[in-house]
Structures are given as structure tokens and as C-alpha cells.
Design brief:
By secondary structure, the protein is mainly β. Helix content is about 5%, strand content about 35%. Strand 5 (about 100-110) and strand 6 (about 110-115) form a beta hairpin. About 20% of the residues are buried. This is Galectin. InterPro entries: ConA-like_dom_sf (IPR013320), Galectin-like (IPR044156), Galectin_CRD (IPR001079).
Length: about 325
């Protein structure tokens, strides 16, 4: 007498289901979710505010965009383009993707998009229902973007260039407002730069110690006196790529003053070597001749590496972790 095999109560009875088909009761409707998202994107595209330019953008042109992201629109964009806004070239597409928490920059020419850029100088600054102010500064070779008074990213001019733009458009923001003017400083909403405190010892603590953040510009009131040093502390990224230290004659993002000393540590260049590449230069109206040396010995992911810049010709910018091997030596 044939005995029917025991069946696990957790097993799914797929009898009556043809090969290649999935029972409707057990099907997850990915298409429905995708459709909902596509509808949101379509609605965001339909929410548009376009302002035609009365005169071409030029060096120093300053675009201010304000608005508030809403939770029913998954992204918004600021576009700077040429020709008919409905089907035209876009010189700069600044696309804020709230679900993914990043910003895409790109250019569209002849209905084809170029290579996306997503890197930025600070963390994602946008939040649902929180008003924002975006500043766009047009320079000779790039556009600078600031969010709420802090520089966020730069985007090199492509073809077409924003210098040939005829309109600016905001999509996906219901309360968007645009203002286009000229400026001689950027970002205009930036707070006064922090001042580097003077201490008798680098380990001393002082009242009202500044709260430093990445990519900071700070002032040195009276320069670096003889025998004094600048101490820079921070955490290196585990996947260390590069970082830069500049000594400037003016504390501002744009227009940049002279760079009296440019130190660029390029850890990504032949990263298998025991020491990282250091590139030294100066900008006095134009870049000078580079000086390259493989002298940095930085450990990615370490908590408190220290770099020292002194004004003594015998004391280099050096690492606390390796006093006998300076990052570089530069007489002054």
C-alpha cells in the first residue's frame, strides 16, 4: 500500500503551477513599487520653475536657489541649459537624490548624458521639509556650488558651457525661488572664518575652542611668527586617497588669493610603496614648478595623525608619528 510522504507544514504547495510561473499568492510585485517610484519621478519633473536669462552668464555670475524638499518627491534638480527647456542641452544638471543621500552632477548634449560626478567636499546637506539655499558661482573654468553658506562641490565646464546658457530651471521643488546677480565673493552666506588659536603648547585646551569641520578655511591673525608652528590633527580615511594643505594670503573660497604654500599628499599614486607622494607648489597668479618627493609615512584610518608647519628653516612640516622622517622640508 503506497504511503504518502510526510510534508513539512512550512513548505509551499506548488501543485497546479505550470513550469516557469510563480503562484500569485507568493509573488512580490516589484513592478508596482517601481511604478510608484516612476510616478513620483514624473511628478517631480512636472513641478518646474524656469527663469530665462536676460543676459549671458559670465565670470562672477551668482545664482541663488531657495526651496524646501517634500517627502512625496524623491529628488529635485537645478538645471542650467541652452535652447528650448523642454528638449535642449543642459550645461549643468545638479540632481539631488534624497533617498540615496547624494548629489549627481552631469551634462546633457544632443540627448546624451555624460559621465556623472558625485564626490563632494562635505556630507549630504539636504533633508525633507528643511529649507535650503543653493549658491552657484560661475567661474572661468568651473561652477562652484555652496549649500547654506558652505562650499559643497565644483563642476568643471563641459560642452555646452554654462557661459552659453539661456535659462535656469528648478524641478521637483514646489516653493522654488531663483535670484541671479553678480558677486565678488563666494559663498555670500558663509559665516566669518574661524581663527586659529595661539597656544603655548599644542596639547593645551582653551576656552571657546573652535569646532573644526572638514575642508575648513581659517585665519591666522598675524601670520606664523618665527619659532611657532601650525599643528593639524585629524583622522585619515581608511581608504586614503589624497588631501591638501594650503597657506593662503586671504581666507576665502573665491576668488582665491595667492597660495604661498601648496602641500598635496597623493596616497593613491603607487599606493603599494612604503611612503606616500608629496607634491609641493605655490600659486602666485599661476602655478610654479612642482616639487615631488616620496616622504610621507601616514597610516590610513589612524585617529590622530599630526602635521606641523613651522617657520624655522631647520624645522619641516613633519609627522608626530615619525619625527625622524618629515613629511617635507622647505626652507623659508
Amino acid at each position: 500500500m503506497p504511503i504518502e510522504g510526510l510534508k513539512c507544514v512550512n513548505c509551499i504547495n506548488m501543485s497546479g503551477i505550470e513550469d516557469g510561473e510563480l503562484a500569485r499568492d507568493f509573488e512580490y510585485d516589484f513592478a508596482e513599487d517601481a511604478l510608484d517610484f516612476e510616478n513620483q519621478l514624473s511628478e517631480a519633473r512636472d513641478v518646474k520653475f524656469t527663469q530665462n536669462l536676460t543676459e549671458p552668464l559670465s565670470i562672477g555670475s551668482h545664482i541663488i536657489c531657495t526651496g524646501t524638499p517634500s517627502d512625496d518627491l524623491p529628488w529635485f534638480a537645478v538645471n542650467i541649459g541652452c535652447g528650448d527647456p523642454s528638449r535642449s542641452d543642459i550645461a549643468i544638471h545638479f540632481n539631488v537624490r534624497l533617498p540615496q543621500c547624494y548629489v549627481v552632477r552631469n551634462t546633457k548634449r544632443h540627448d546624451k548624458w555624460g559621465m556623472e560626478e558625485t564626490t563632494a567636499y562635505r556630507s549630504f546637506p539636504f533633508k525633507i521639509d528643511r529649507p535650503f539655499t543653493i549658491e552657484v558661482l560661475i567661474d572661468e573654468k568651473e561652477a562652484l556650488w555652496a549649500i547654506d553658506g558652505e562650499h559643497y562641490c565644483s563642476y568643471a565646464h563641459r560642452n555646452p558651457s554654462p557661459l552659453n546658457a539661456t535659462w535656469v530651471q528648478v524641478t521637483g521643488i514646489r516653493d522654488a525661488a531663483l535670484k541671479i546677480q553678480k558677486t565678488d565673493i563666494y559663498p555670500t552666506l558663509s559665516p566669518p572664518p574661524l581663527a586659529v588659536p595661539i597656544k603655548s603648547d599644542s596639547n593645551d585646551t582653551i576656552e571657546d575652542e573652535p569646532k573644526w569641520h572638514p575642508n575648513v578655511i581659517a585665519t591666522i591673525a598675524d601670520g606664523i611668527p618665527e619659532g611657532h608652528q601650525i599643528v593639524i590633527r585629524g583622522r585619515l580615511r581608511p581608504m586614503l586617497h589624497s588631501f591638501t594643505i594650503d597657506l593662503l594670503d586671504v581666507a576665502r573660497e573665491w576668488p582665491r588669493g595667492n597660495i604661498l604654500l601648496h602641500v598635496n599628499v597623493r596616497a593613491h599614486v603607487q599606493s603599494q610603496m612604503s611612503r606616500q607622494l608629496v607634491v609641493l607648489n605655490a600659486w602666485l597668479g599661476a602655478w610654479g614648478q612642482e616639487r615631488r618627493q616620496r616622504t610621507a609615512k601616514l597610516i590610513p584610518g589612524t585617529e590622530k595623525p599630526q602635521l606641523h608647519q613651522t617657520t624655522s628653516s631647520k624645522n619641516p612640516l613633519q609627522q608626530d608619528t615619525d619625527r625622524d622622517h618629515p613629511l617635507f622640508t622647505l626652507g623659508v
